[in-house]
Design brief:
The protein is an alpha/beta fold. It has 2 domains: about 110 residues, 3-Layer(aba) Sandwich (Rossmann fold), CATH 3.40.50.2300; about 110 residues, Winged helix-like DNA-binding domain superfamily/Winged helix DNA-binding domain (Arc Repressor Mutant, subunit A). Helix content is about 35%, strand content about 20%. A 5-stranded parallel beta sheet has the order 2-1-3-4-5, with helices on both faces. Strands 6-7-8-9 form a 4-stranded antiparallel beta sheet, covered by helices on one side. About 35% of the residues are buried.
Length: about 250
């Protein structure tokens, strides 16, 4: 039986010690690693090697890490983990909005980093198998003008296709496939991100917020996704009136 090729990882990091730590940790997890010290060099290696995983420092000597992430996402479906010493909330929000899959601050635990990478690779990156099974075996889910094609991985709203990230699509399909239930943040973490994500509720909340923007709604006047205070999220039942104040501000 042929041995599958090793997964590949690209480390874009200008700090030598951090770069060596990330490379050693990933090699211990079976990755073939490549390294870049600048954003331009990193983007060139993305095109050359088509890595399965990219770790990306937010502060690089040439391009801002946010711009590198944006350009990398346009040409690659690799998992992207942003690594930075800048802890301001805006960095996390921007990183997730442009397509990063995770965000980890310096200093970090190699064990935690390994666990997060392992959890990410438990869910396929592309193709129909990436999606949670649709309710009742239907390939297309519909809800108040919103159509989600599980096999084609497309979502349209009132006839217009939505530009969703991989995570946003998986969240939307999960919510639609279980439209009659309330999804806790823990259950969404497990279903969409996989095991090993602990209590990182903020990760869910940021992606739900981004998804709502693309659906043209906000938490105060939701058309599709309702926040259930202290629990999680559910789809608004068809024909139900929006309940002002039914969602926590900003969720």
């Amino acid at each position: 039986m042929p041995v599958p090729p090793p997964r590949t990882a690209l480390i874009v990091e200008d700090d030598h010690d951090i770069r060596d730590l990330l490379s050693a940790t990933l090699r211990m997890n079976g990755f073939l690693t490549f390294e870049a010290r600048t954003g331009h060099e990193g983007l060139a290696l993305v095109r050359q090697y088509k890595p399965d995983l990219i770790t990306l420092d937010l502060t690089l000597p040439d391009l801002d890490g946010v711009e590198v992430c944006r350009q990398a996402r346009a040409i690659s479906d690799a998992y992207i983990v942003m690594v930075t010493a800048r802890q301001e909330e805006i960095d996390r929000l921007i990183g997730l909005e442009i397509g990063a899959d995770d965000f980890i601050g310096k200093p970090f635990s190699p064990r935690e980093f390994s666990a997060r990478v392992t959890a990410m690779f438990r869910r396929p990156r592309t193709g129909a198998d990436q999606s949670p099974p649709a309710a009742d075996g239907n390939a297309v889910l519909e809800h108040d003008g919103l159509l989600v094609d599980a096999d084609g991985r497309t979502a349209t709203l009132d006839g217009v296709e939505l530009a969703l990230t991989r995570i946003e699509f998986d969240l939307l399909e999960t919510l639609l496939a279980g439209a009659q239930r309330v999804w806790t943040r823990e259950s969404l973490l497990t279903r969409v991100w996989g095991d090993g994500w602990g209590q990182d509720h903020h990760l869910v909340e940021v992606h739900i917020r981004n998804l709502r923007k693309k659906l043209g709604e906000d938490a105060g006047t939701p058309r599709f996704i309702r926040t259930v205070r202290g629990v999680g999220y559910r789809m608004i039942p068809l024909g139900a009136a929006t309940s002002p104040g039914g969602a926590a501000p900003g969720e």
